[in-house]
Design a protein that fits this description.
This protein has 108 residues and is mainly beta. The chain has one domain. The protein is built from two helices and six strands. Strands 1, 2, 3, 4, 5 and 6 form a six-stranded mixed beta sheet that branches. The radius of gyration is 14 Å and the shape is globular.
């Protein structure tokens, strides 16, 4: 596990998910690696979330934080359906496919 500046600070247990998923707030998902098969800190950072941490969910469609949930359990490896959404991915026409990933369940 990595060491972060917020470790041990009781008031620093907040996360932000930015998504356009329909089931916003049910879980957090990310691939184990990026399109070049390299671990990406953006995808892996949520694995540092702990039970009871608060997650704010930014809905890209509404352009607002629309939900809040709590981490319900540790990250676990699971296949996920994923497509990168950055400008490079859009240019190359990325489509969702099943990839090795991880999930963290959330509670409303």
């Amino acid at each position: 596990m990595a060491h972060f500046w917020w470790e041990g600070l009781a008031g620093e247990h907040y996360w932000l998910e930015s998504t356009d998923r329909e089931d916003i707030g049910t879980d957090l998902r990310a691939p184990l690696t990026d399109g070049s098969d390299t671990e990406n800190w953006r995808y892996g950072l949520f694995r540092e979330a702990r039970v009871a941490d608060i997650v704010f969910h930014y809905d890209k469609r509404a352009q607002a934080i629309t939900r809040r949930s709590r981490i319900a359990g540790p990250a676990s490896e699971a296949p996920i359906v994923w497509a990168a959404r950055g400008s490079y991915a859009r240019e190359r026409g990325a489509v969702p496919v099943e990839v090795p990933g991880y999930r963290i369940l959330g509670l409303p």
